[in-house]
Amino acid sequence: MKTLIQFISEKQADFPFATGEFTRLLNDIGIAAKLVNREVNKAGLADINGYFGQQNVQGEDQKKLDVFANDCFLTAMRHGGMVCAVASEENDELYTYDNAFSQKGKYVVAMDPLDGSSNIEVNVPIGTIFSIYRRKSESGPGTVEDLLQPGNRQIAAGYIIYGSSTMLVYTTGHGVNGFTLDPSVGLFLLSHPEMTIPEGGNIYSINEANYIYFHEGVKQFIKFCQQDDPATLRPYTTRYIGSLVSDFHRNLIRGGIYIYPGTLKNPNGKLRLLYECNPIAFLAEQAGGKASTGYERILDIQPESLHQRVPFFVGTRHMVEKAEEFMRKNA
Ligand code: AHM
Ligand code: MG
Fold first, then answer.
1. pTM
2. What does the record give as its pathway (predicted)?
3. Of ligand 1's atoms, which has the minimum distance to the CA of residue 119?
4. Which of 117, 157, 326, 329 is the most exposed place for a label (fewest CB within 10 A)?
């Protein structure tokens, strides 16, 4: 049995420059994840304890769960002092730490503290997504430029899924490993070593209700998924939870493609490059899969702003390549 911390410490050899700081940062993320997990598990008791974002029966304000998650991760990373700045879905501006200790931190983080949070009320898995870069500036509070690095410069990325069990899945560019939280001892244990996306998957995940707004290439790819050809496992099967972490996690284990394309209404789609697409793309590639905008590799995009959106195609390599083929033909 190997814990997350034992595993990360052993893997420090992957980093010739390792000082142990990176290990501590991942540990801090793991601690915040456990606190968020505890609150997510209580969400079902909202009727009894008071809804998140409203007053409880004692007349106290209850924080919304996504605000709570944001605070938790920001606080955990402040204590560690490894991180000088954080771009979060919950903060319009870059969050910088005001303590001298953190301002010496080598790293910057982009995160979506609670992705798919509209699913909390219906007991569907939600997640946290994180992406870690080495800062570019020398010292002082981190800057927006520190965050505006292409995804191929990530030194680590991962997600936590709060599901039927809670898992932390991450990569440092040396494969993908998954850890399951054993709630009885409060430890993440290595349960899914060296995860790879199966080539033989048959799942496609897309919000088809937007069909009329899709690009012709996406429409034709959907038609392709629905054609009868048992040799290629078609027709594929649709699975769409509407929670990126859960949809990606399932496709990572079973094989499949997730698409959030640009639409007529929103040409850049919905998902954010820095803290949704880049980290998931890094994991996908490290698991043998692929991630693109339909035309170009996600990880090669030079970001222009913290909350920039991009169309997102991710999953089993040949499925993403097939979708790209339809996009190109109909460009
Ligand atoms: P959020 O960050 O506001 O939670 O939105 C992101 C979520 C993803 O988890 C999910 O894949 C997507 O939005 C679903 O969007 P839609 O309801 O348009 O299909
Ligand atoms: Mg999100």
1. 0.94
2. Carbohydrate biosynthesis; Calvin cycle
3. 4
4. 329
